[in-house]
């Protein structure tokens, strides 16, 4: 029996999420990513790609290529929310789901042809995602993961493509060698030096030659060029950690700025825990200095999702970690050891007022965005910019709380 592997990819995912929040961005060049000189492009709309902009490009170069684009820092909380919604839709419909990234999925539909047809099912599934989320999504369907992924990329934007069993080599033959997953710029340049630019020529090469040039990866590239891929679907499971990092535009030793950033990260991650009905039992802080030396510390704690438990512990970890007094390039916070559970009142330290406060704050964030209400301690220079495209307050300051549990 032939396998039926479905690959789904949310088109320009971050840009699409921003367009749902602000319809005026539709049809215009939009670039999402770090807005400082050191920032990189996380997502670029098809309108901006015409100017040569692509993900992973330095933001400084993107501004030179497409100065007329709308530049957005992005909101990880919103993207996570939409990704979770799509994941839940797919999990309800397919027997085995692999979540390859925040916007990319594989599903094993093998055996479903006997009931109603895999391609018909995939089309209906795609329509369901579009209808329920408003997000554009493309898919490729074939006998393995590699060909399905390539088919998805050929189907984009917002379309679908099926490669019938036995036609894998014919489908891949005219495509650029760069279309094969795992062929990056360095490998592509090596192929160009050999005079090879299309997959069809690789299909004709002896596998021994590929191994002699590319080592152990040579055989895998040759197999994928020939439409051979035996890799299984790795079933999706809930992640066991969440994290946040920030790279500063300029290295700094401003402790107030650093602590403000750490504070804001911990507060936002705690909100994400409560949103996902999760508790954490381990916190970690990471610091990267200007010489790129990276250090981290972690601490086991009782299960919690409460700001007033997590924030002081995270700040204390940072104070213990930051001892070199050198310029800092990056800081990060991670919560791990996650488990299902609601935040419970501790009879020895909490009151109903505290729990009610969290519920009120979270309700505002769920409706207006995760930066719509925040503690005064996170309003310093180290916090991320509030407002911008799609902000429900239209650039107005967020609600600020000065609360005794800080």
From TrEMBL:
Monomer. Pfam families: IMS (PF00817), IMS_C (PF11799). Binds 2 magnesium ions per subunit. Its cofactor is Mg(2+). GO terms for cellular component: cytosol. InterPro entries: DNA/RNA_pol_sf, DNA_pol_Y-fam_lit_finger_sf, DNA_pol_Y-fam_little_finger, DNA_polymerase-Y, DNApol_IV, Rev_trsase/Diguanyl_cyclase, UmuC. The keyword Transcription regulation does not apply. Keywords: Cytoplasm, DNA damage, DNA repair, DNA replication, DNA-binding, DNA-directed DNA polymerase, Magnesium, Metal-binding, Mutator protein, Nucleotidyltransferase, Transferase. One of its GO terms (molecular function) is magnesium ion binding. It is found in: Cytoplasm. The record marks 14 as: Substrate discrimination. Gene3D superfamilies: 3.30.70.270, 3.40.1170.60, 5' to 3' exonuclease, C-terminal subdomain, DNA polymerase, Y-family, little finger domain. Residues 5-184 form the UmuC domain. This is DNA polymerase IV. Mg(2+) binds at residues 9, 103. It comes from the Bacteria. Belongs to the DNA polymerase type-Y family.
């Amino acid at each position: 029996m032939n396998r039926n592997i479905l690959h789904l990819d949310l088109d320009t995912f971050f840009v699409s999420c921003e367009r749902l929040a602000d319809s005026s961005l539709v049809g215009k060049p939009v670039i999402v990513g770090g807005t400082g000189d050191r920032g990189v492009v996380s997502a670029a709309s098809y309108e901006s790609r015409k100017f040569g902009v692509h993900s992973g490009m330095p933001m400084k170069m993107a501004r030179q290529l497409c100065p007329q684009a709308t530049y957005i820092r992005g909101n990880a909380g919103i993207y996570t929310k939409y990704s979770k919604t799509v994941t839940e839709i797919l999990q309800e419909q397919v027997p085995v789901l692999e979540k390859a990234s925040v916007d990319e999925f594989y599903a094993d539909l093998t055996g479903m042809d006997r009931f109603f047809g895999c391609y018909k099912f995939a089309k209906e599934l795609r329509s369901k995602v579009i209808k329920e989320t408003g997000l554009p999504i493309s898919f490729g369907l074939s006998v393995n993961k590699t060909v399905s992924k390539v088919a998805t990329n050929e189907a984009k934007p917002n379309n679908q493509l099926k490669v019938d069993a036995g036609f894998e080599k014919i489908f891949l033959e005219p495509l650029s060698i760069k279309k094969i997953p795992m062929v990056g710029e360095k490998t592509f340049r090596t192929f160009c030096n050999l005079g090879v630019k299309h997959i069809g020529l690789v299909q004709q090469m002896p596998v021994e030659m590929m191994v002699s040039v590319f080592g152990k990866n040579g055989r895998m590239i040759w197999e994928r060029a020939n439409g051979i891929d035996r890799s299984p679907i790795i079933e999706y499971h809930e992640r066991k950690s969440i994290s946040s990092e920030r790279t500063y535009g300029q290295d700094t030793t401003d402790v107030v700025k650093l602590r403000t950033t750490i504070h804001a990260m911990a507060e936002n991650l705690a909100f994400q825990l409560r949103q996902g009905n999760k508790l954490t039992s381990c916190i970690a802080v990471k610091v990267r200095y200007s010489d790129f030396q990276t250090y981290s510390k972690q601490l086991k704690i009782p299960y919690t999702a409460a700001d007033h438990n997590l924030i002081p512990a995270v700040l204390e970890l940072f104070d213990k970690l930051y001892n070199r007094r050198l310029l800092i390039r990056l800081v990060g916070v991670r919560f791990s050891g996650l488990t299902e559970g609601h935040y419970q009142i501790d009879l020895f330290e909490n009151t109903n007022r505290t729990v009610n406060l969290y519920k009120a704050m979270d309700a505002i964030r769920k409706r207006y965005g995760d930066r719509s209400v925040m503690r005064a301690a996170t309003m310093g220079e180290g916090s991320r910019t509030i407002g911008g495209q799609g902000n429900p307050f239209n650039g107005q300051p967020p609600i600020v709380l000065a609360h005794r549990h800080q």
